[in-house]
């Protein structure tokens, strides 16, 4: 009886947590993979300086550049420009690629800043 | 160098304790105390030395140059000690060593003391491996200073509190293992384990809560709780320690639960070390808001953690036959069942958070790296939390008499905390651009944006708002170059909750640069500039300290000479904006060529222009958020009260 109850609870929990997890996992992919995936993914890159970021009322658009291949991706973030965006040395965008407007719709942005925060090189 | 010698001394004295326990049949309590005291003294000496180096601005030590500066206020020089990884490990070790001395004065067996001091030796070796006393390869006259985000009272006290929690959780682990090794069936370790675990749990909780309060009152951290790996890595041990607390208490009455108490003690400490591994190894670098420095000690911590977990569980399995057997509970109607079920539910929550925070690591083992959405945590844990609350209410109604006063207070605090989390998230949010004197209505409050003001030294900027007639200010700490370094919201507090105003960084688009060539005239539209002279100050060994340019500025009639400077810092240079023509212009020197023939000058908008600029802000109401701060304090107070019974 005690064992049966414990096993039932454990099985129930694993099934419950597993289902939730499967829905929430966002794999870490390259820009090329992000373009071809219809699932929620995380993509990392540098800010593409050739495109000036734009902020409308509730959408922030910028261009992300792959560190290795140089490929770029238009990212539309559902929100305002995050703090420290300008100092970011790389950016992680979490969301989905939408081929209808050829851009990546980010739900979340992680901004990675250099730990040395007072940096600015003379010359 | 001296610091490292102190640490070597601390290792030798720490290793001497288990040696004494092993060699002598009946270990001399006096000898053990002397070794423990000696080890703690060495650690304390190393710690005092680090503080001395920080206060002496000794930048020949890399750690001091990286986290302190001559300009740092005294309180933050104290906390610069634990601003970096090396120093925070030393702080952990300091608490561990002091608790170790206390442990030798308590009623414990020799094996427990031996296990504890082996851990201390390993911890000291880790500090030594990545020593805060490492010499600075670069020669600098000024340190980088403490990250402005960390220059906050709550952030200064958060690490010491949390490390007391981490360090003290080694005691129940050592008590459990020591008892298993020498007198497996004994339950005498439980009384001692109860006191240490309660103390550790309330400190760990207080540390987490202080961290959450700090995260609430700065911007960029996602509110009081963001399910960031740093946060999760302290939440999981806290949850496991809560399980340990309940099982230790139950095992004192029910001998059959002893084995579960042992397992919980091992898992709790293993999870403390695991969290440290995850956040300090650099593995999560791409998955956290925090930029973690990658660290070579990651592998060593992982190994230590594996030894703790596998070692602990092996000893439990080996001694399992000697442990009291029997039914965990007799009927589903008794309190033991409620406690066990509650513990299992907390383990479920801990497991969810553990899987979520470990996902980047786990997914790499099976294939491509992945992380989980933060929604996962809320969605998965909320229903379990609801069941826990229902179980608590049932248990209180049925067995309330048997729960101690401290226990009652802590549990009421816990339920109130969950209620406050839900309640405070039911507010309204508005994001809007506000011109000075513009009004905004939200949740029955009137918010007026008043404009920006600057502190005299130019290192602080305030966005001023009036909420229901009361002035509140959002502080932004500025770098030497005038850009934002750390930003805080403006918070208006009242009984019905907080009005939380987060101004967004303004788009300053009229900053431009002038390249000046020595002796030639250049214009910024209205004013003319001539770069006439430059000078570089050097230290005794010829390294540049500061560059000063002399520039004459003219509006056609009046000529004013300015002397902007760049001060060399370990990572480049810093320079202050200076005002020209009574604030008509603000300029800043951003570069000087090596041959002193060219200078780069940045022309910044005037203070007056900045203060009249419209600012976008996200305004949120947080109904009854004070209940959250009150309830978490209640949890800690109740837990401390429960120590005395």
In summary, what is this structure?
The complex is a heterodimer of chains A (123) and B (645). By secondary structure, chain A is an alpha+beta fold.
CATH class of chain A: Mainly Beta
Q: At CATH's second level, what is the architecture of chain A?
A: Beta Barrel
Describe the oligomeric state of these chains in a short phrase: heterodimer
Work out the helix count of chain B. Answer: 17
The amount of beta strand of chain A, in percent, is 35-45%
Largest interface: A-B, 45 and 62 residues
Measured between the Cα atoms of the first and last residue of chain A, the distance is 76 Å
In the CATH scheme, the class of the domain at 429-504 and 610-626 in chain B would be Mainly Beta
Give the CA-based shape of chain A: elongated
Mean pLDDT of chain A: 79
Strand content of chain B: 15-25%
Helix content of chain A: 10-25%
Q: Which spans of chain A of ≥5 residues are poorly predicted at pLDDT below 50?
A: 115-123
Describe it.
The complex is a heterodimer of chains A (123) and B (645). By secondary structure, chain A is of the alpha+beta class. Chain A has 2 helices and 7 strands. In chain A, strands 2-4-5-7-6 form a 5-stranded mixed β-barrel. Residues 115-123 of chain A have low confidence and may be disordered. By secondary structure, chain B is of the alpha+beta class. Among the domains of chain B are: 429-504 and 610-626, Tick-borne Encephalitis virus Glycoprotein, domain 1 (Sandwich); 512-604, no CATH class. In chain B, the strands form 4 sheets. In chain B, strands 11, 12, 13, 14, 15 and 16 form a 6-stranded antiparallel sheet that branches. A 5-stranded antiparallel sheet of chain B has the order 3-4-5-6-7. In chain B, β11 and β12 (528-538) form a beta hairpin. The two termini of chain B are 48 Å apart. The interface between A and B is large, with 45 and 62 residues.
């Amino acid at each position: 009886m005690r064992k049966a109850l414990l096993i039932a609870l454990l099985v129930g929990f694993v099934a419950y947590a597993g289902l939730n997890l499967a829905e929430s996992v966002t794999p870490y992919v390259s820009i090329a993979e992000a373009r071809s995936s219809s699932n929620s993914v995380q993509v990392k890159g540098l800010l593409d300086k050739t495109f000036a970021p734009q902020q409308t009322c509730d959408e922030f658009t910028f261009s992300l550049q792959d560190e290795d291949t140089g490929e770029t991706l238009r990212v539309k973030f559902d929100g305002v420009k995050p703090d420290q965006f300008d100092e970011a040395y790389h950016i992680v965008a979490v969301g989905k690629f939408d081929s209808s407007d050829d851009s990546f719709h980010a739900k979340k942005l992680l901004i990675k800043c250099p730990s040395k925060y007072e940096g600015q090189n003379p010359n | 160098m001296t610091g490292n010698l102190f640490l070597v001394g601390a290792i030798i004295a720490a290793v001497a304790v288990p040696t004494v326990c092993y060699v002598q049949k009946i270990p001399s309590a006096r000898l053990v105390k002397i070794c423990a005291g000696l080890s703690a003294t060495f650690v304390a000496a190393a710690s005092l030395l680090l503080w001395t180096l920080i206060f002496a601005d000794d930048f020949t030590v890399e750690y001091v140059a990286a986290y302190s500066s001559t300009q740092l206020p005294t309180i933050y020089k104290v906390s610069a000690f634990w601003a970096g990884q090396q120093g925070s490990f030393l702080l952990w070790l300091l608490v561990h060593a002091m608790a170790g001395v206390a442990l030798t004065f308590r009623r414990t067996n020799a094996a427990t003391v031996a296990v504890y001091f082996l851990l201390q030796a390993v911890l000291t070796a880790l500090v030594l491996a990545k020593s805060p006393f490492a010499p600075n390869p670069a020669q600098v006259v000024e340190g980088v200073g403490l990250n402005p985000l960390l220059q906050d009272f709550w952030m200064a006290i958060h690490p010491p509190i949390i490390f007391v929690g981490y360090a003290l959780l080694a005691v129940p682990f050592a008590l459990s293992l020591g008892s298993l090794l020498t007198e497996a069936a004994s339950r005498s370790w439980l009384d001692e384990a109860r006191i240490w675990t309660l103390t550790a749990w309330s400190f760990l909780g207080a540390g987490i809560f202080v961290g959450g309060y700090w995260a609430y009152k700065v911007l960029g951290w996602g509110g009081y709780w963001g399910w960031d790996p740093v946060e999760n890595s302290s939440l999981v041990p806290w949850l496991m320690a809560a399980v340990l607390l309940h099982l230790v208490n139950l095992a004192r009455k029910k001998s059959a639960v002893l084995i579960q108490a042992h397992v919980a003690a091992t898992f709790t400490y293993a999870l403390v070390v695991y969290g440290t591994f995850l956040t300090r190894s650099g593995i999560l670098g791409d998955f956290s808001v925090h930029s973690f420095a990658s660290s070579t000690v990651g592998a060593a911590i992982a190994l230590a953690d594996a030894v703790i977990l596998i070692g602990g569980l092996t000893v439990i399995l080996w001694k399992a036959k000697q442990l009291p057997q029997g039914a965990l509970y007799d009927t589903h109607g008794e309190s033991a069942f409620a406690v066990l079920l509650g513990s299992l539910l907390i383990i479920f929550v801990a497991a969810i958070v553990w899987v979520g925070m470990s996902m980047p690591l786990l997914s790499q083992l099976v294939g491509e790296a992945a992380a989980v959405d933060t929604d996962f945590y809320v969605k998965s844990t909320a229903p379990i939390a609801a069941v826990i609350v229902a179980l608590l209410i049932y248990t209180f109604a049925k067995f309330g008499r048997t729960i101690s006063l401290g226990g009652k207070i802590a549990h009421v605090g816990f339920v109130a905390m969950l209620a406050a989390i839900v309640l405070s998230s039911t507010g309204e949010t508005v994001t809007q651009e506000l011109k000075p004197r513009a009004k905004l209505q939200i949740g029955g409050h009137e918010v007026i944006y008043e404009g920006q003001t600057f502190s005299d030294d130019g290192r602080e900027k305030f966005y001023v708002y009036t909420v229901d007639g009361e002035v509140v200010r959002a502080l932004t700490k500025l770098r030497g170059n005038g850009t934002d370094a750390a930003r805080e919201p403006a918070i208006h507090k009242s009984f019905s909750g907080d009005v939380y105003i987060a101004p967004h960084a303004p788009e300053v688009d009229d900053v431009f640069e002038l390249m000046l060539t020595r002796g030639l005239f250049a214009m910024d539209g209205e004013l003319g500039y001539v770069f006439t002279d430059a000078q570089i100050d050097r230290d005794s060994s010829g390294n540049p300290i500061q560059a000063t340019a002399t520039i004459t500025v003219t509006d056609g009639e009046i000529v004013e000479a300015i002397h902007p400077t760049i001060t060399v810092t370990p990572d480049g240079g810093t320079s202050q904006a200076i005002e020209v023509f009574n604030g008509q212009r603000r300029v800043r020197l951003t570069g000087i060529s090596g041959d002193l023939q060219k200078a780069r000058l940045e022309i910044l908008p005037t203070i007056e222009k900045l203060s009249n600029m419209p600012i976008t802000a996200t305004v949120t109401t947080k109904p009854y958020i004070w209940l959250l701060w009150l309830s978490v304090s209640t949890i800690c107070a109740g837990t401390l009260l429960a120590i005395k019974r």
